[in-house]
Specification:
Elements lengths: L1 E9 L2 H31 L7 H6 L1 H7 L9 H24 L16 E4 L6 E4 L7 E5 L3 E6 L7 E10 L2 E9 L12 E6 L3 E5 L4 E3 L3 H4 L1 H12 L11 H35 L2 E5 L3 H4 L6 E2 L7 E2 L3 H14 L1 H15 L2 E5 L24 E3 L6 E3 H19 L3
Parallel strand pairs: 8-11, 11-14
Antiparallel strand pairs: 1-5, 1-7, 2-6, 3-4, 4-5, 6-7, 8-9, 9-10, 12-13, 15-16
Helix pairs in contact: 1-4, 6-7, 7-10
């Protein structure tokens, strides 16, 4: 199995400058390859250029521009071209499936923040010795950069990526590991129901409150964005020092909220995995749930529209995004696989409207957001707990019905 590790780098001033130049030159390579594909399709009878053709040109590109392209790792430049090729592959896949295509875009220096080295030892070297307190990563064209390694790396390092976040630099390792020993069986099963008021409700009646990190930082973020909006929109190289500081403040606030959300998701998922052998959850389509409502044209007023609840839906969409259900479910699946636990997603329809006692399904069974009252047998309870119980039952049925 593969596992990723992310460590903070501590480059010197010159190394940080070289890292920035590495991102700039890889961004230039990415944009040049994208422009070549566009021009070939538009002006050469819709000719498509593939990765193999562009990779074959790298040798000539490095010889033509040794100062900017020749100084970096050949394999990392190939990885950048593969990144563009994957973007086009995803674009054509979306076109065929009828989704919004999203043609690949040019990447400015601000929007190109990662360089990948496909193999440890080819243009890069992860240097971590057990008895050396200082860990370094060697990068071609940059040198040996110190790394704050806060935990040991298990397994063999396969790929190394350098990532910039604001003014900080990180190294991301992917290591190949043997399947770890599963956690001891606990004999417990659980169903979970994700929500807004409570982040999570389980089938045993427990609740995990919603931390609302985005809501807590909304006031500071609004003030920072208001301050940023006072500056005129100019090119990056024309910004004043105050403008740059305002941009960094907004980015740092967003980054802090993202880290808080990830920390909460990791801790909650780890607690579930440690305490339960089997976990069932709703198969939520978060992207569909957070779509804006369709406009309602007013037949009596040409060009006019009827109220469609867009304001209320916008608030709900912000709450859904703040909860981070998709990130949490991804982390839960990864931790469960590593611990030898079983996770099953079930159909979420009517899970909060079905009575767990008699099976009656009705919208009237849920008179309020939190209250459940069955109109047939009179069973009462918290609506989220009822939903978690139904999710667990559906998950167990699906597990038992699956072929061995």
């Amino acid at each position: 199995m593969m596992r990723a590790y992310k460590f903070l780098m501590r480059p010197t001033v010159r190394q940080a400058q070289a890292l920035g130049e590495m991102l700039r030159d890889h961004s230039s390579l990415y944009n040049g390859a994208l422009q070549e594909r566009r021009d070939a399709y538009r002006h050469a009878s819709k000719t498509s250029i593939k990765y193999r053709q562009q990779s074959a040109q790298l040798k000539d590109i490095r010889a033509f521009d040794p100062e900017r392209q020749g100084r970096w790792s050949f394999s990392s430049q190939q990885a950048t071209l593969r990144r563009l090729d994957r973007a086009f592959g995803a674009f054509f896949r979306r076109v065929k499936s009828g989704e919004k295509p999203g043609y690949p875009r040019f990447r400015g220096v601000n929007w190109f923040d990662t360089v990948e080295f496909p193999k440890d030892g080819d243009g890069c070297r992860w240097d971590s010795t057990p008895h050396d307190p200082v860990t370094r990563v060697r990068l071609q064209g940059v040198g040996h950069v110190r790394v704050h390694q806060h935990r040991a790396v298990a397994g063999r390092v396969k790929t190394i990526s350098i990532k910039r976040e604001g003014r900080q630099w990180f190294v991301v390792l992917s290591a190949e590991q043997v399947q770890p020993e599963p956690l001891p069986a606990r004999g417990c099963v659980v169903g979970i129901d994700l929500g807004i008021a409570n982040f999570l409700a389980d089938s045993s009646g427990g609740f995990v409150p919603n931390p609302g990190h985005g809501r807590s930082a909304a006031a500071k973020l609004e003030a920072a964005q208001r301050a940023l909006s006072r500056f005129p929109r100019v090119r990056r190289d024309k910004r004043t020092a105050n403008h740059r500081r305002a941009v960094e403040k907004v980015a740092n606030l967003h980054r802090k909220v993202r880290r808080q959300r990830l920390d909460h998701a990791h801790k909650t998922a780890l607690d579930l995995v440690r305490r339960h052998d089997f976990i069932a959850h709703e198969d939520l389509k978060v992207r569909n749930m957070s779509k804006a409502p369709v406009p309602k044209p007013d037949p009596g007023t040409p060009g006019g529209f009827l109220p469609n609840g867009a304001g209320a839906k916008a608030g709900l969409n912000r709450s859904i995004s703040d909860a981070g259900w998709g990130v949490f479910l991804t982390i839960l699946a990864a931790k469960a696989e590593s611990a030898g636990r079983e996770v099953i997603a079930v159909d979420p329809r009517n899970t909060s409207r079905q009575c767990p006692e008699c099976g009656h399904i009705s919208a009237e069974n849920r008179p309020t957001q939190a209250k459940f009252h069955c109109g047939t047998c009179g069973h009462t309870g918290h609506a989220d707990t009822v939903g978690a119980i139904n999710v667990l039952r559906a998950g167990l049925v699906r597990r038992d019905a699956a072929p061995a």
